[in-house]
Design brief:
With 216 residues, the chain is α+β, with helices and mostly antiparallel strands. The chain is built from five helices and 13 strands. It has a seven-stranded mixed β-sheet with strand order 3-4-2-1-9-12-11. A six-stranded antiparallel β-sheet has the order 5-8-13-10-6-7.
Length: 216
């Protein structure tokens, strides 16, 4: 679901709500760039950051929140109040300021996240086709990692023997198919050598093929 589309929807919304969530930074996903944040437990936060024309749109956070809430609840049902609510989804942050709109949505699991993607596909930029988070040990039983080449996630892309990676049984692996900037709740140690970018902001996965991100 593109935030630009939601901004257009918000411009037409007349029902105002009490607020737009907590825009303050907290531990967990950062709101500086569009990305997908995953945890060891398989929870997902979708982070969307979009620029908008301040002359065409007012900073109507309440209107944007109303649009987002309506579309999201149509997929997941009633939203929760924060990630500890146990609800399928909750809005962590929703802001419009100085020509930048920011939306963070917490999903309790990967299945709920893909319900959202299926309902509101990003046809312009593409999106993740599949995502799984598990331990390295369990990942091996699913056929992950074996046969892939790996590099250290320190920016130097130094090659690492696959056998060294697969021995890290207590670490976690995110298996990602589709292009996205991926962030995790643990330090990223190794990535498959098909990732297109490794930066302090996360790891960017390729459009085609499955990429592996191994983290603590």
């Amino acid at each position: 679901m593109k935030l630009k589309k939601l901004i257009l929807l918000a411009a037409a919304v007349t029902v105002m709500t009490a607020g737009c969530g907590n825009g303050a930074e907290s531990s967990g996903p950062a709101s500086d760039v569009t990305s997908v944040y995953v945890t060891r437990e398989g929870a997902v936060t979708s982070v969307t950051v979009e620029e908008y024309d301040t002359e065409a749109f007012e900073d109507d956070e309440a209107g944007l929140l109303a649009s987002v809430t309506e579309d999201l609840e149509a997929v997941t049902g009633p939203l929760g109040e924060g990630e500890e609510s146990g609800a399928p989804a909750s809005i962590r942050e929703c802001t419009m300021k100085d020509g930048v709109a920011t939306l963070l949505i917490d999903f309790k699991d990967i299945g709920t996240y893909f319900q959202y993607l299926d309902a509101y596909p990003d046809e312009e930029n593409g999106q993740i086709k599949s995502l799984d988070v598990t331990t390295v040990a369990d990942g091996l039983s699913k056929g992950y990692l074996t046969g892939a080449g790996f590099v250290k996630a320190d920016g130097k892309r130094e090659a690492v023997e696959t056998s060294k990676v697969t021995r890290e049984s207590k670490m976690y692996v995110a298996a990602v198919e589709g292009a996205a900037l991926i962030r995790t709740d643990g330090e990223i140690v190794y990535v498959s050598d098909n990732v297109t970018e490794i930066t302090e902001n996360g790891v960017r996965t390729p459009k085609e093929g499955t990429a592996y991100i191994v983290f603590k």
